[in-house]
Amino acid sequence: MIEVQEQQVEDILQDAIQRITTSGKDFQLVSITKKIQTTNPVHFFEAALRLNKERVFWTSAKESFTMTGVGNAFEMDANENRFSFIESAWEQLRGQAVIYNPYEVPGTGLVSLGGMDFDPEKKRTELWGDFPSIYFTVPEYLLTKFENECYLTVNIKITKEDHVIQLSNQIRNDERILLSLKELEKQPLEIVQQHDIAPDQWKQIVQKATEEISHDQVDKVVLAREVRLKLNRDVNRAAVIEKLIATQSNSYVFAFEQKNSCFIGASPERLVKIKNKELLSTCLAGTAPRGKTNEQDKKIANALMQDMKNRQEHDFVVQMIKQGVAKYCEQVYVPEVPIIYPLKNLQHLYTPVTGVLKQGHSIFDIVSQLHPTPALGGLPRTASMLFIRENELLDRGWYGAPVGWFDYNENGEFAVAIRSGLIQKDEASLFAGCGVVKDSQPEEEFEETRIKFAPMLSVLGGES
Ligand SMILES: C=C(O[C@H]1C=CC=C(C(=O)O)[C@@H]1O)C(=O)O
């Protein structure tokens, strides 16, 4: 293993500047990874405020794996053919980048993180104005923490005009700032106003969906709604991340900043994970609350396992994911019966799907094939998406869509961005939805969404 020493960084930069001058290319992306002392990824996130750069945060459900990205060394977005466009931009970058990364750890080196609109065909509102329809960034600084080891990757987009000493001083200075913070400032956050957007109208749409289902227009539709909050102060996003990590076990905690907005959440739902060609996807649909005692909790879990409505809702997701994955994978395995996936406020039906990615396929194929699963869209896909597009009162933006990352070694992971909200200064919009099938009751579905708001509400100063 050859580590890049401090003084070698300057040689690498010098080399890249020389190469760009002779090659005629516009820029050269250089990515350098080193191991650093164990540090707190949330403090790193907060410290980045002093650099005035956009930040991203990602931590993986159940694994000791966290990434904090600061600044944008390279950005990818697209208007049409969004998956293939991002994939080809990434392939191009991967081909030209100079990468110094002696570590085998997924999520170190050249990595890109981002997300996208749930439905690119839905009319956009001002709410999501800061967010592109699809966006992936290669951060300037990426802290990757895996099982207590920390790696710092610096990605630099070098142009002919750059100077080595200036660049290396800048990097040293930024790193010092990013690694300097030891704790977060505590500022009590309170919700001063909470407004459910059009609850009665939402229930009527649920009713309408059940009618369309009984007329065989569609089998399942997921309908979401919004709660709008006013807080007593501007939200400290690092503090929200810290609280989500502390309270929402079994979840991906993520945050993506764009201009004045931050999309943040703690989602239990994995869309896909690829590690060394091995695929893991999960089906998560069918919901019940947690019990107050162990005994009550078990009783509710048993009832959820036996409940035909929830089992059907879940099975729609399993069948679709199994079929979608089979197109691109060998050795697909799906257990016959779901298990219970417990969260702080809720429990879900959960079925893992495993397989091995066939040669020539990538995480992009899987994400574009699976999104939206019937856990967020419905079944059949086209009819349910049309129903949502035409009836739902909400601009979902990135809610319910894939968010995640991929690296230059073809590893990556995407979650479905639920249990989430969009934070803008001292305001927030929270989103939650539920699967509607033939026997759904609007009041019960409303109650289910109410509980799904709890993870975000509780970290913003509301009740847990
Ligand atoms: C749409 C959401 O949850 C989905 C994921 C798990 C269980 C669900 C359900 O039981 O309805 C939903 O399909 C949400 O939390 O906003």
From TrEMBL:
Enzyme Commission designation: 5.4.4.2
Binding positions for Mg(2+) per the UniProt entry: E313, E448
GO biological process: menaquinone biosynthetic process; salicylic acid biosynthetic process
UniProt keyword list: Isomerase, Magnesium, Menaquinone biosynthesis, Metal-binding
A molecular function GO annotation: isochorismate synthase activity
Location of the Chorismate-utilising enzyme C-terminal domain: 200-452
Needed cofactors: Mg(2+)
Gene3D superfamilies: Anthranilate synthase (3.60.120.10)
Catalytic activity: chorismate = isochorismate
Active site per database record: K220, E269
Involved pathway(s): Quinol/quinone metabolism; 1,4-dihydroxy-2-naphthoate biosynthesis; 1,4-dihydroxy-2-naphthoate from chorismate: step 1/7; Quinol/quinone metabolism; menaquinone biosynthesis
Entry superkingdom: Bacteria
UniProt-listed InterPro entries: ADC_synthase, Chorismate_C, IsoChor_synthase, MenF
Family recorded in the similarity comment: Belongs to the isochorismate synthase family.
Role, per record: Catalyzes the conversion of chorismate to isochorismate.
HAMAP family named among the record's database cross-references: MenF
Protein name: Isochorismate synthase MenF
Species name: Virgibacillus massiliensis
